Amino acid sequence: MSGALAGTRVLVTRPAHQAENLCRLIEAEGGVAIRLPLLTIEPVANPAEAQRRLAGAHALWIFTSVNAVRHALPLIGGPLPAHLAAIGPATAAALAAAGGAAAATPLAGASSEALLKLPELRDIAGQRILIVTGAAGIDALERGLSARGAVVERADVYRRVPLPYPPEAVAAALRRTDVVVVTSSQSLEHLLRLTPEDSRKLLLRKPLVVPSARMVEKARDLGFLQPPRVAEPVSDQALCAACAAVPPS
Hints:
Layout: E1 9-12, H1 16-28, E2 32-35, E3 39-43, H2 47-54, E4 60-63, H3 66-76, E5 84-86, H4 89-97, H5 112-115, E6 128-134, H6 140-147, E7 151-162, H7 167-175, E8 179-181, H8 185-194, H9 200-205, E9 208-210, H10 213-222, E10 229-230, H11 236-245
Parallel strand pairs: 1-2, 1-8, 4-5, 4-6, 6-7, 8-9, 9-10
Antiparallel strand pairs: 3-7
């Protein structure tokens, strides 16, 4: 077997509708993709509240994910506004595909911290800014904008729902796994909860591939022993390349 991932078994935990391209890339490089979607993405329970916020007047809309774009579009009921920002290139591409104007996007990284470095977000005192995101998401962006004097609102347009698995199914997947790809803190916490007690040490020794420095900190706080590899800029190609860069165990 040849390729950058020859024989490497990669546990892919992304939601099923977002995982297949990454799985194909892993398999094209000779790896084995083990599918274990930990979350599913669903509309929020109260879309009317999100719709009301999306109808308001704001100087800038910030989209935090492709899922935010996908779930906001049916609620907007018209064209996207002229002034947009996106947390990363995939989100910017989703906005462009939906007919939106070019979105301001960080030059490096795909995180709240990188987004806050944009020139467009430096002098925003008094401006009304709408964050289009998922329920119970991270608050770093909201806090950072508020600290600069912006009037910040959130439109929560989707929610992440943890999926159940029998403990033995999770333990069996971990025994077959060389590298774990986890793209959200909620997924990482859920994976730890799902893992039976007698397999926790095995999980905590596994090398992780993650999308941000914040998740490196999260993994350390949860007790993972190896510093995760960070895929930057975040894309399926970068996640695959990060898996290939993990030293063989």
